[in-house]
Structure formats: C-alpha cells, structure tokens
Amino acid sequence: MTKPRILVIGSVNMDLVARVERAPAPGENVRGWDLRTIPGGKGANQAVACARLGADTYFRGRVGDDEFGPRLVRSLSEAGVRTDTVTVTDGCASGVAMILVDARGQNSIIVTPGANGRLTPEDVTAVRKLFEWADAVILQLEIPPETVARIIHLAAETGTRTVVDAGPPRKSADASLFQCTILTPNETEAAALLGCAPGSRTAEAMAEELLGRGPKAVVIKAGAGGAVVADAGRIVRVPAFPITPVDTTAAGDAFTAALAIEFIQDVDLLEAARVANAAGALACLRLGAQPSMPTAAEVDEFLAKHS
Questions:
Q1: Cβ neighbour number for residue 74 with a 10 Å cutoff
Q2: Which listed residue (15, 135, 165, 253) is catalytic?
Q3: 253 counts as catalytic
Q4: What domains are defined for the chain?
Q5: Which of 52, 156, 179, 279 has the fewest CB atoms within 10 Å, counting from its CB?
Q6: Model confidence pLDDT, tens digit, residues 233-267
Q7: Strand partners, 15
C-alpha cells in the first residue's frame, strides 16, 4: 500500500518548557521546576506526527544559525521527516516558544518567531514540485501572512488539497485562507477568524459560518468537547475520549496530522475526526510537543481500547 504523501510548510521552534503549579498573575513571581528544552513549533510538530503516523513527509521551513538550529533539524530527521527542504537563515535566531505547564496540564505559551518570520513566498515557490508530489499540504499561521497566501494559491494551481491549522489566533485573515480544503481551528481561533468574542457562540454556529466563507470542510477542535465537523449537508460533534492530561501542548498538532492522513485516504470526515481525537488525546499524556506525537500503532491500540 502506498504511503500518504504530505508536505508540511510552517514553523519550527525550540520549546523552553517549565512546570508550574499555576500560571503567574501580572507582577507575580511563581516558582517553577523541571525546565526542559524540547523541539516544537506547530509546523514541525505536525510533520513529526505525520511521519510517525505513517506518511511520507517533507517539511519546508527555516531555522536560525544558532545552537538550536541543528538540534531542531535533527529532531525532524530522527522522526522520519525529510529535511533537505529546511533552510538555515544566516544572522537570525531560531524560533523559540516559552511554555508554562500547570498542575492541570494546561499551558500558557509565548512565541518569538525568529527564522520562522523569514519564510517567504519565494521559499514556497521553490518547492513547487513537492506540491505536485503531495497528496495534501498542511500549513499553520506561525509564518508570515503573505507566505500563507502563496501556499494556498500554489496548492490551487497544482490541484493539491490543503489542510489549514488556523493557529495561532489571527483577527484578520486574507480571503485566500478560506479557499482551503479543510480549515481546522480551535474554538478561540475560530472566534478570532469570525471577529467574535471567545465563548460567545457555539462551535457548531462558528463552524457553519466559517464553512460559508469557502472551505470544503471545517473541523473545530474543542478539546474535552471533542471536535465539530461541518461539510456539505451536516454539522456533527464527534465526542472526545476521556483522559487526565499531563500536558496539552501540541495536542492540536497531533489532531491535525491524523485528520489529514485519514482524509487523504478517503476516510469519511466523521471517522477521520474520531481518529484525530484519539491522536490528540495520546499527545496529552506525555510532556512536550514532538516527544508526545503518537505513532500509528499507538493510535490503533488506543482506539481498540475505546471502541
């Protein structure tokens, strides 16, 4: 059986992860512990997840010429991701995310883009042949807006399906963002795209409105609330799997990768979302981003236990 072929274009960061009892209030000093440096970044996380889930995966992105750059590339390569399309950016730091994980496993994140902000539309055009090769392109919003627009336009030119993870939240978006195959924001990101206050509307209502803006399908990640799938003729909530999270960092990235792989194999989107929920749940059970991305065997075992 031919492996699914996925091109991931996006961000790669070094995550500085500290455990805390709770996130500090403004001006407050809170004691933390267990500081770790762990490879992350939404794009790189999704590429690692795709490779571990069995896809033939390329990653297009930029690292800096600092001490983090080689480690970030090595982490991708060791997971089975093809990295010859990763560019080292001279005179620039790699992206860094500072992450606090509290006692409930919830996280607070500050991201400094570094080399991710130097990923240009020309960088995308340079890998046009990979668009023609890929079954789908996955992208996120941790890279410049003009680069996101170029990815979507080039995918349209080559007839390649696009899965857009609409994070981090962006209050305004180029109309091209909605010309994707699947748009998969979380509830906060969906609200930002629609210009409404978080929590002011149901995920179902937001999915319906986002679907009307142009995507072929919308899948809203709702954490413990599961996922809401909206496509032609239906809006359905797919329940989450009950777990006690250790760290929710990158759960959405595992979800997006699994959803894309199932979709391009012609699995119905409701079943694809169920598998994606399982991948996201598994990612919550380990600390860190890329180390928590599950394998295909782990997802299969988890689903068998929760059938």
A1: 12
A2: 253
A3: yes
A4: 5-24+33-305 (3.40.1190.20)
A5: 156
A6: 899 999 999 999 998 889 999 999 999 999 999 99
A7: 38, 97
